[in-house]
Amino acid sequence: MNFSRSAQSAVIEFLRAEGEHASQIYRRMKEVYGDQCLAQCNIFRWCQRYEAGRVNIKDFPRPVQAHVVTISDTISAVDELIRQNRWITTREIAVELSISKGTVHHIIHKKRGYGKVCSQWVPKHLSGNQKTARIGVCLTQEFLH
C-alpha cells in the first residue's frame, strides 16, 4: 500500500471534497495507514489549504539556506586583512568588507585554513619551512631546560 505523503494528501483532498470534517478524516486515515499516518495537525492544515482553494496536492518547495558564495576578490581581501593584523576578529572583517560574519567564518576556516591560537590567526597547515623552524624552536627549548 502506498503510504507516501502525496498519496495521503490526495485522500485528504478527496474526503474534504465529499464534505468530511478534518477530525473524521484523521480517524479514517488512522485506521487505514496506522503508524504511517500523517499527524493530526498536518491533516488539519491540509484541510484548511483545500478549503482555501488549493488545487495542487504536492508540497510547495521550501526555502533552503543559501550557499555561501565567495569570490576570489573577497577571499583575497579577507586574507589581506588577516595578514595585516593577525588579531583582527571576524566581526571586524565583516564590517570592513560589508559581508556577513558567516561568510567571513567560511572563508577563514574552509577556504584559507586559518585557526585562532592565542587570539592570533595562524595557518592550520604549516609549510615545509615552517615545520623545520618549528622543530628548531622545539629542540632549542628542550636544551634550555
Automatic annotation (TrEMBL):
Lineage: superkingdom: Eukaryota
Name by which UniProt lists this protein: Mos1 transposase HTH domain-containing protein
